[in-house]
Amino acid sequence: MRVGRTHVLRKGDEPVPLADGRTSLLVEGADPNGLHLVRVEVVGAATPPRRDPCSGTAPVRCHRLDPAERLVMTVLAQRVLLRLAGATLLTSREAAAELEVLAPGVWTPRKVEHLVKRVRERLAAHGVDGLVPEPGSTGYDSAYRRNLIDELVDSGTLGTPDLRLLGLDEE
User: Fold this and answer.
1) Where are the domains of the chain?
2) Secondary structure of residue 88 in the 3-state scheme
């Protein structure tokens, strides 16, 4: 992939930070002779997202996660990020067991549950639907957790590079 006029990226290369604004990418397809031009708009935290009325493109919605939140969400979402068929999310108990290997004595299932709830409530307060029960209704926590992970992955907040936090390869 050629990024702008200055970088050529190959499989396994380190990521290249992009400045706010538009950047062109030339991406090689399955046929090495076929190049595809992709133009991306990088929107920073201080830049309000723009909507191009002609493109039908929705504004990008990326959520901020602190390092502990990113680690826990990555542990929970690892099967989804690895694109395993029929991927299910880890339970709080399973996630705490995996986190224990990475940070001994820090994580318990209850701490995982509290962190997940905190992230769900914060994103819900910022307008993300389906993360908390409607007032007066009940629901399954696992469904809200799945909606949270789907939102984080679909928005690009979590991606395969995050698997490095777990010592897993992206491939």
Assistant:
1) 1-60, 67-166
2) coil
pLDDT tens by residue, 36-47: 777 777 776 555
State how far Cα 149 lies from the chain centre: 8
- Given a contact cutoff of 8 angstroms between Cβ atoms, the answer to whether 76 and 149 are in contact is yes
Q: Which tokens in the block code for residue 77?
A: 């979402």
Q: What angle do CA 128, 130, 134 make, to 5 degrees?
A: 110
SS3 55: coil
Query: CA separation (Å) from 143 to 133, 139, 148?
Result: 10, 8, 9
| pLDDT tens readout for residues 14-31 | 777 777 777 777 777 766
Residue for token pair 């680690």: 71
Other CB atoms within a 10 A radius of the CB of residue 39 amount to 8
pTM metric for this prediction: 0.64
Terminal Cα distance for the chain, rounded: 17
Helix, strand or coil, per DSSP, at residue 40: strand
Phi, psi dihedral angles at 5 (to 5 degrees):
-110, 5
Residue type, 109: P
Cβ(51)–Cβ(143) under 8 Å? no
Q: What is the pLDDT of residue 135?
A: 74
